[in-house]
Amino acid sequence: MHLEGSFAARSPQDRVYAFLLSPDDLSTCIDDPHTLQVQDEDRFKGTIKTGVGFIKGAFNLTARIAERSPPRRARLKVQGSGMGSGFDIDATIDLSEADGVTTVRWAADVLMSGPIASMGARLMQGTIDKKSAAFFENARERLEGP
Question: CA-to-CA distance for 28 and 85, rounded, in angstroms?
């Protein structure tokens, strides 16, 4: 499944880039119950309790920053598993700034396996769109806040 979107924040590009590559900052944008442990500058792991349709539970995840091109681009790889399901995500962010507003364009290729993969595409898309919108709105609010 390919996903993409964008959001804009009234914040300098350098600050937005640093925020989006900080596991501690990103953690504040996730609405679902979760834990996060930083392993090193490019790796972190954790758990998230979430669900799609009737499939709900905890997923373990590992994430790695696979590419850094400050302050314009980054690539992340995330793997997760739980409740007999799994996912692999290959995501990129591309940033640009104009007139004090940074635009972030993101894209992700997601591969799923197990019961979660059997969910209908419409149900999956709706859930992912809702969770992505909430995550990026939380990020925008934190970046524009005091």
Answer: 25
Angle at 116 between CA 61 and CA 75, to 5 degrees: 40
Residue-wise pLDDT for 37-66, tens only, equals 999 999 999 999 987 767 788 999 999 999
Instruction: Say if residues 104 and 8 touch (Cβ distance below 8 Å).
Output: yes
Q: How confident is the model over 105-116, as pLDDT tens digits?
A: 999 999 988 887
Q: For the chain, what's the residue count?
A: 146
- CA–CA gap between residue 146 and residue 142 (Å, rounded): 8
Could you give phi then psi for residue 8, rounded to 5 degrees? Answer: -125, 145
Half-sphere exposure at residue 50, Cβ-oriented, CA atoms within 13 angstroms: 22
- Using DSSP's 3-state secondary structure scheme, residue 28 falls into coil
Q: What strands, in cross-sheet order, belong to the sheet with 55-69?
A: 2-9, 101-113, 85-98, 73-82, 55-69, 43-52, 34-40
* Helices of type H across 22-120: 23-27
| Pairing, β 34-40 against β 55-69 | unpaired
Structure tokens at 9: 């924040």
